[in-house]
Each structure stands twice: as C-alpha cells, then as structure tokens.
Amino acid sequence: MTAAAASTGAKAVFCLCAAEVLTMVGVFSFPALLPGFIAEWGLSNTEAGWISGVVFAGYTVAVPVLTTLTDRIDAKRVYLAGALIAAVSALGFTLTAEGFWSALGWRALGGVGLAGTYMPGLKALVDRATGPKQARWISFYTASFSLGSSGSFLITGVVAEGFGWRAAFALAAGAALAAAVLVAASLPAVRIAAPVHKTHPFDFAPVLRNRAAMGYVLGYAAHVWELFGARSWMVAFLAWVLASQPGAAGPSPTAVATLAALLAMAASIVGADMAVRFDRRRVCAAAMAASGLGAAGIGFCGGLPYGVVVGLMLLYSVLIQIDSAALTTGAVIEAEPARRGATIAIHSLLGFGAGFIGPLAFGLVLDLAGGATTGLAWGLAFASLGAVVALGPLALRILR
C-alpha cells in the first residue's frame, strides 16, 4: 500500500470514528436517565424496556435498506442522511416528549438515524481504507461505538444534572448535526464500481448461504442481545443497589456506566488483536462463554457492598465487549466483496434486532420475577442475558 493510500485511509478512519462518537451522544441518553424517567412519567419496567429497546427496533427496520444501498452508492451519502435523521429525532424528543408514546416514536426514529450512520460508516471506511491495516482500522471504528456509548452516558448525565433532560437531548441533536458537517467536509467521495454480474441489490440469499460469514453474524446477534440488555439496565440496577444501602458511597451509576463503556472500548480493541493473532472463532467463543458466566452471577450480587458491585459490573462490561469488534471484522472478512454491504446489512439486522429484544426481555423478566425492588428479579433478568449469549459459541461451531 502506498503512503498516499495509507494517509487517505487514516484520515477516513479518524473522520468516521469522530463522527460516530458525535452521532452516538443521543443513543443511550434515555437509559442514562432511566430512573428519572420511570419516576417522572410513571413507567412500568416493561414500558421502560420498550423505550430503551425501540431504538434498535427502528434500526432493525431501516438497516437492511440503508446498508445494502452502499453496495450501489457511496456510503457517505447514506451517512449524511442518517446523521440528519438522528438530529431530528433528538430535537423532536427535546420539544415534544412527555410520556410513553411520544418518547417511543422519537426513539424509534433515532434508531433509523443510527441505521444510517453506524454500519454505513463501516462500509465507508472499508471502501476508503484498504490494505493490511484494514482489520485494525475496522476494530478502531467498531470500538468507537463504546466510546460513543461512554460519551452518551457521561454527557447526558452531566448536562441533565445541570440543565435538565431536555437540554441533554438538545445537545445530542447538535452533536449529530456536527457529525454530518464533519463527514460532508472531510470525507472524500468514492466511486462505487458497478457489479460485474447484474443482481438484485436486496437479494440476501447468497449472504445467508455464506456459512462462514453467518457464523459470525449469529454470534454477533447473541452478543448484542446481552450488550444492549446490560447497558440499558445498568444504571437502574446500580441505582437500586445504591438506594438499598443507606450511607453507601461511591461513583454515581451514570459515572460507572461511562467508565464501563470506556473500558469496553479498550477490551474490544484488545479482543480484535487477539483474534488476529489466534483463531478468531475460538477467541470469540471464549469471550462469550466468559461474559455468559458473568451475566449469570452479576444480578445476584446486589446485596454486596456498593463498591464491590461497581467493580464486578466493570469487569462484566469488559467481558461483554471482548468479542465485539472481532465478530464484526470476521463477518466483513468472510463476506463476498461484491456483497459486503448486504452482508453488513444482515449482520446489523439480526444483531440490532436482538439488541431491541434484549432490553425489552430484561424488563419483562424483571416484572415477572417480582419487580425492580428484589434481588432475585435482578439476578434472573441478568441471567437471561447469559442464557442467550451462550448460544453464540454454538453458532460459531456449527457454521464453520
């Protein structure tokens, strides 16, 4: 690879990672303030799970179309549209959200915005950053999702504490708009070559027949179910632990969620490097087995001192994320070059579809097991995440 190509690739990676962090500011704003919304709007745990998860439902509906289009048009154009939709969603939430239904609608639209930025951004990177460093660049980009998640929890918590939750969502709208400006000004356009053989752009059958890629796709779905289920309810769980221990001291639940996302980013990069050095499937399977064991126990630890629970939650967050970039990189590497966009679309469709169900299922288990005031309910809810992620290694083994 020439020095000029390497420079162009590095510039594209920096631009897209920075833009991803900006568009992510609003993604976890609702989970970051979940206890306050439950109290202010009188939400049940199931309703809170719906609002937390509907972002990923909107994502799931839109991503097959938006990401598959990147096989035919420059992903930059799709990204710009997605960032603008994300800005409109956050602004609409700021101005009109006042309860379950209005919040549900705007958060669903936010999922469409995420569908237009996250995986189209990955395709834009792959189209511009080729060569031996591509796998590491992909891991940087996918790890930036955790950095964006951390920023979402941190910025939302700080701004909401000082100025209220509407100001936090208004800032999220501004950040998404800034991402659109950054990509428009800094990311060079590319010409997408026409396919050698004329095929329907939305024919996903060849992708589904690609067993090697689908192993990673299904493993990613199990991973995202656990990841978004845990992230959506982490603040609420820690708030319950803190409230049940009068006099307990330590970092706020939002601060813990912020630190957890930062540690998860580092874990994702380390996991991606391990997957390059060792057998990718074994690394991913071992990581999912470890996080599944963590999920089986973390919810039952609410009676331990708050500082201990915080430490265990941070460790669990690291275990969850080790396989994230490695799974996505595996799907990209195993995809047919001409169907890379379609493969990423299926990867996201199943992954974020599971991400929608995960927070909702967590809330349902919580309600069915006695509510958010009992340790047994929290234990079973987290254990349900572990039961699902345990299916990931099975998919990787069967679809070799």
Describe the protein's architecture and organization.
With 400 residues, the protein is mostly helical. It has a single domain, classed as Growth Hormone, Chain: A. Helix content is 80%, strand content 0%. It is built from 18 helices and no strands. The chain has helices at 3-23, 29-32, 34-41, 45-68, 75-96, 100-115, 118-128, 134-163, 165-186, 205-209, 211-243, 253-277, 280-298, 306-321, 324-334, 340-368, 375-389, 391-398. The protein starts with a helix and ends with a helix. The model has no long low-confidence stretch (mean pLDDT 86).
Query: What is the count of β-strands?
Result: 0
CATH topology, anyone? Growth Hormone, Chain: A
Portion of residues in beta strands equals under 5%
User: Globular, elongated, flat, extended or rod-shaped: what is the shape?
Assistant: globular
Most strands sheet: none
Summed up, the helix count is 18
Q: What CATH first level would be assigned? A: Mainly Alpha
So, the CATH homologous superfamily? MFS general substrate transporter like domains
CATH architecture: Up-down Bundle
Distance between the termini: 31 Å
- Helix/sheet category: mainly alpha
Number of domains: 1
Please tell me the overall pLDDT.
86
Proportion of helical residues: over 70%
Uncertain runs: none
**N to C succession of SSEs:** HHHHHHHHHHHHHHHHHH
Rg of Cα set: 20 Å
